[in-house]
Design goal:
Blueprint: H1 3-10, H2 12-36, H3 43-80, E1 93-96, E2 104-107, E3 113-115
Antiparallel strand pairs: 1-2, 2-3
Helix pairs in contact: 2-3
The protein binds zinc ion.
């Protein structure tokens, strides 16, 4: 079983949300104000951009926190031996509702698919 791959897939969304939040914070907090800082017309845009930046990073940090708690909960259940496992390696599976042929489970560790029972 590929534990690193499983952990990366498990915590990919929290990391992604945090990265998006940081990028948007830099964009609205630094990039937009620096572009429009010399223009009188866009003074309102600059102030609104500076006001919205902390709210955006807080929103994405919240999303990251919620998804990481959910991932940790799944990892905890897996450690206890509860929940759904991969038939091949025993890793955590993700339910994919709109699969190519049918809904199925995909292992986060080895990537093998298993049809829904
Ligand atoms: Zn597997």
């Amino acid at each position: 079983m590929n534990l690193k791959r499983m952990l990366f897939k498990l915590y990919g969304y929290p990391i992604l949300f945090l990265a998006i939040g940081i990028v948007l914070l830099l964009f609205f907090g630094l990039f937009v104000p620096s572009i429009f800082s010399n223009s009188e017309k866009f003074a309102n845009v600059v102030s609104q951009s500076k006001n919205i930046a902390p709210n955006i990073i807080l929103m994405f940090m919240g999303l990251s926190l919620v998804t990481s708690i959910y991932s940790s909960f799944r990892l905890w259940k897996w450690e206890k031996g509860e929940g759904d496992f991969c038939h091949s390696c025993g890793g955590i599976t993700r339910y994919i509702i709109n699969g190519k042929y049918s809904p199925h489970y995909r292992c986060l560790a080895c990537g093998k698919n298993r049809a829904e029972n």
